[in-house]
Amino acid sequence: MVDSITSTTNSATSRIGAGSTMLASNFETFLSLLTSQLKNQDPLSPVDSNQFTAQLTQMAGVEQQLLTNDLLKGLLAAQGGGDLAGAATYIGKEATAAWSATKFTDGEATWSYELASNAASATLQVLDGSGKVVWSGDAPEKGTGVHEFTWDGKATSGNDGQDGQVYSLRVVAKDAAGGAVDSQVLTRGRITGVEMYDGEPYLTVGNSILPLSTVIALEEARAAITPPPANDDAEAGLLASLASNLNPLKLFS
Closest Cα to residue 21, out of 11, 10, 29? Predict the structure, then answer.
C-alpha cells in the first residue's frame, strides 16, 4: 500500500512539474502575442473590447493554474515529510511483517514461518545475498500456524553464515497429495527505529530493516513484569511473629 502511495506521489509531482513548465512557457508566449497585438492594432479598427476581455481572462486563468500547481507541489512535499513522522509512532510496538531478509548476528539468524494448512513435507532454505541456497533442511514444525526457526550458520553448501551478512528464508511445503501448501516467511519483533529510503519509511525490527508496507500486524509492546525486591528483614520478622503465636507453651503462661 505504501509502495503504491509513494509511486503515485512521485508520479504526480513529476507531472505537475512538467505541466508547470509548459504552462509557464505558454503564459510567456501569450503575453508576448497580446503585447504585439496591442502595439500593432489598427487605430481605425481597434481590438474589440469583448475579445480583449476574453484574452485577459484566459491570461488570468493560466496564472491561477500556475499558482495552483505550486500549491499542489507544496502539499505533496509536506505529505512525503509526514510519512516519517507517521511511521515514528510505531516505535516500541511489536510488529509482524511479511519479510524474509534478516542480518546474521552473534552466530545465528531467526525467522518465523507460517503454514496455511498441515503439510506432509516442508523444507526450509536459507539463501545468501546473491540468492544462492547455503542451507536446506526439514522444517522443525509442519502443522498449521506460525512456527519459529533459528539457523546456526552451518551451511549444507557454500560458505557458513557470516556476521553482518543478510540472509533470507524460503519455505517449500506440500500436502499428502503433493500439492503446494500456502506459506509465508515472517519477521517479528519490536520496532526500534525508522528511516527513509527513496521517499518510503523503513522500520528496524530486530535484525531486519523492512518497508512499512510489509507490516501485516501491530501490537502494543508487552512490558516485562518484575517482581518486587525481597525484604529479608521483613520476612524474618514475619516468620518470628508467626512462630511466637503458634508456640504451644504460650497457652500455659
Answer: 29
Report pLDDT for 164.
Answer: 95
pLDDT of 85: 80
Per the domain annotation, does 229 fall within a domain? no
| Structural domains of the chain, count | 2
Could you give the CA distance from residue 99 to residue 208 in angstroms, rounded to a whole number? 9
90 vs 210: CA distance, rounded Å: 13
Q: Which domain does 109 fall in, by range?
A: 94-219
| pLDDT tens-digit readout, 22-70 | 555 666 776 676 677 667 766 666 666 666 667 666 766 766 776 777 7
Kindly state the cell numbers that stand for 91: 516505535
CA dihedral sign, ordered 198, 184, 207, 193: positive
Residue 37 forms part of a structural domain: yes
Residues 45, 62 within the same domain: yes
